[in-house]
């Protein structure tokens, strides 16, 4: 074919030099048309075969392969092989062009291999994400590491092809520039090491709620890659955190709370110290009408009376002997109220405690866990509890501290 066109041109009076160029262009056009037709046919055949197999199988892995265009990328292999084989025939009279085209096609072959490999790895990633045991694992990080390694090898191979040096000689020469390579890929190396530590130590999973004050992150982890961790904050913004930041800085992972069956309530009200007092018998009788502490007051009053009689306490002065205080009774009331609250997890720590006095007053803290961990419901439960606490204070002759504003005399 090559000589036929060339000879035909010479017979028609075309000069030898022009005939070479016209012969090359004719053969190149024929080769490109052939490659295009074969590529089109191969894509159609592979697509029909893969689609037919995907419909018959129960697994969805083959569907994912098609979605990631693996058959389509594989279809390019045959036309590329044909182009590489026939290039010497087309450019036989143009040695320099032949070398350039051959090297270009070999580079394209390397890039096509990487593309096929990427489609396969992405298909594996997407398939593993459908399995419960791999859903929260940073699979993409390992794929990125492998692809970076393959890209480095591909770049070495491409430079070896372009320069004409053998791959292993070129690879050995690169060793002298290893310090520069490490500097260039510093973040990638740090991210790789960090992703391994994060996975091995199970520090973070996809779906975990984390709080990272340094980067302003407060929300769910939606993606873990080699270089970054993406967190969708509660306001729906996305915060990107360097993967190595998870091991170099401190952050809070709320997974333990999510798995525990409760969400902590730790809030206090500040009681004015000047409103705390010993209780008289009449006041105790009045408080006995409060149902949650009625039994407690009956029992406790008898114990105190018995003790005071035993020691001969002079109760004409209220401070003598043992006494009940409105603050202590209020603390017992809140303890009983929390213990009977339907939204509180009774299997976890539950207490009402008095904290150290401050300049504003005495903090009375409720420490408990709500059984519902969802944020909206948790806030409602906590608000409901403290609505009751603030409303109940006055029934015990106590007052909550409020910062007073100075009166202006305009």
Automatic annotation (TrEMBL):
Pfam family, any one: MS_channel_2nd
GO biological process, one term: cellular response to osmotic stress
Membrane topology: Multi-pass membrane protein
Domain Mechanosensitive ion channel MscS: 187-255
Highest taxon of source: Bacteria
Keywords, comma-separated and alphabetical: Cell inner membrane, Cell membrane, Membrane, Stress response, Transmembrane, Transmembrane helix
Transmembrane segments: 20-41, 142-162, 168-185
Molecular functions per Gene Ontology: mechanosensitive monoatomic ion channel activity
Keyword Phosphoprotein: no
Principal subcellular localisation of the protein: membrane
GO CC term (a single one): plasma membrane
Cellular localization per UniProt: Cell inner membrane
PANTHER family membership: MINICONDUCTANCE MECHANOSENSITIVE CHANNEL YBDG
Name under which the protein is recorded: Mechanosensing system component YbdG
Organism: Winogradskyella wandonensis
